[in-house]
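Protein HflK: structure, please.
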Amino acid sequence: MSFERGNRRDFDWQNIDWGRMEDFRPLLFWGVPAMLLALLAYTSVYTVQAESQGVVLRFGKYIKTVDPGLRYKLPFGVDQVSILPVKRQLKQEFGFGTEGALDTLQYSNEQSEERSMVTGDLNAATVEWIIQYRIRDPQLYLFQVRNPGDTLRAISESVMRTVVGDRTVDEVITVGRQEIEAEALVQLQDVVNMYQLGLSIDQVQLKNVNPPVTVQPSFNEVNQAQQEREKMINVANGEYNKVVPRASGEAEQKIQAAEGYALKRVNEAEGDVSRFNAVMTEYLKAPEVTKRRIYIETMRAVVPKLGKKIILDEEASQILPLLQLSTDTQRGQR
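Here you go.
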């Protein structure tokens, strides 16, 4: 008997050693079920990592979303699981690319086109920025929009061009960076929600924002002049803040000293008036006594200031008895 398959060969069924094949029957009896059980376990058990969620599909139809842990599904390809890192913060870069990035959607190959923009005053600027986002709804992320990562990149570029196009080049490069980031974040999240991408935008951050290379030296000179102007203004304000408070303090001090002197003079005048009125009252009661007391008090205050004086009586015949010729030491010894 002959058997033909491909090339013609002769096969003799009468020469088969059926006794030797009986030795393999136990291996076939236990080996095939064991392989089937291993294949069943391999295709029905899977693990969802701690920072991820699993989306279970049955014949391509969404069934459920499962949390992290050891999970089971129908084997042999009936159920398929897509695991998404919902708690990991993802990033996209525009106008530049970080070397060694594992995510292929993190940057594109059209970096020069991405960073070239036109501002609201029709000036050119090169803008580099990044967005950080998370997967909020795995079901929407997988089934609502085709290629959600590319869609997000297109939306982000459109929003950034809109926001930059509403401002002048000076605002974009200098003072308006934070306002641009905040407005771009709000608009980007609104468009993402409208398209139902299942994403939440955490941050929009501007990186290098510069004028075009051809005009960058002139722009740097203008910026340097503006910085010097601001520096001079700050120095002048510092001197003003140092001199004016000091002059105000000195003026206040002089005003308070004048007010104190005036109060002192008024109090002294009032005291003199009160004393004069008191003396006048006593004088009206006893004029002679009061005049004598005033005379004695006045002489007591004036005479000590005159130094050594000799007062002679008009009836005195000589002055020697009145002179104190001895020194203070001799008088002490006596």
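Notes: The first helix runs from residue 18 to 22.
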